Amino acid sequence: MCPYIWTHVNHYPPYNPDVKEKGNDMNTCNYLKKFEGTATLIRLVTSIDPPICASNDTVIQQRLTIIDNGAVSLISTARNKEIIESLNFDIERSVARDLIMKIARFFSKPVDNKRYPVVGNYDLTITNSDGISYFYDGSLNNNYTIDGDNISEYFRSILDLPQLLVFEDHGRKKDLLKLRLSSVLDGALIELDVKEGTLAYRSQKCKLVINDEQEVKAILAKYGERILEGRKHSSLSTEIWNFMLNAEYSYGEDLEFGGNTKWNSHYHFLDELLKEIRNLISAGLSTYIFSQDKSLTDISGLTNYQELCLVESNDLFHPKWYLSCDGISVNDYVLVKDESGSIIIGQVVQMKREYGGFEVEGSITHIIKKL
After folding, report:
1. Rounded distance, CA 171 to CA 59, Å?
2. Which tens digits make up the pLDDT trace of 58-91?
3. Whole-structure pTM over 0.85, yes or no?
4. Which of 312, 303, 322, 307 is nearest to 363 (CA)?
5. Which of these, 281, 27, 333, 45, lies nearest to 164 by C-alpha position?
């Protein structure tokens, strides 16, 4: 089959399989033949085999057209053929010719095309100055290089379109660069910044900044995709929110949305995220207190913490955390309230400090008194 594309240059002749091998003229489909002449236009159609769970805004197909006069067009569509992205812009003619000629040079020699795609395939049309077109196809797992450059990465970089598939089964990864998470209830703010390599925490009484580039990168890399998914379930502005989230990515628009973690199962990842952030803050504070580590560069108001006690009792279904009171130590016996509100006796088996707010796991009550 000749993968002829009939959507851009309307003077192309229709494909006729009977003349496929008869020569190189306007009535021939030059399918997988070595390119000849001076290239003036390329059109690359890349199609992905969509996963079953693909959402309506998952890109399934891209159509990239570049003309030697500098015109560039990119259309990205979803499974239902809906256009997700449509771009038309001009680049320098010299840049356009360079991109077109790199493709033409690559396909002017035999190319080992993998023909049985697993995740997707491409169809390429190259047209020369005589109006003769050449056609190529293959699967989206080819590391094509020319002049030492990966062609796919070269196109993404020159066109500043990191989302391009080109000849691979993925575009450049969309990285989460900065995350800002604020609590609607108490106004506390957490900010992670990859460029600065910092974790900043601010509340009305407390402010600290921890420099830990490796940990910050790891956290943002882990939750970048889950935040993109969480945006689809953003609560209505008329509903009660207990958090606001702003995310900046390596390309595309910033995300900003809010919701209530207690009412929406799609925000459960925030519990995990906040636990990792708390652990990073606690580790930074411990290092600062015991060794004056300089990674904690800005620190103030450290009285804004909660001392928590894990209490164990035969009258509790499982050990439970309570806010401490003065003079409490591990192994002390205390009076607390159980799940139903009844006063019971328990024993403190563990103690820890929690800095700041963002308690999304439920309310914590005070120990009534030490026995």
Report:
1. 11
2. 788 999 999 999 999 999 998 888 898 899 999 9
3. no
4. 322
5. 45
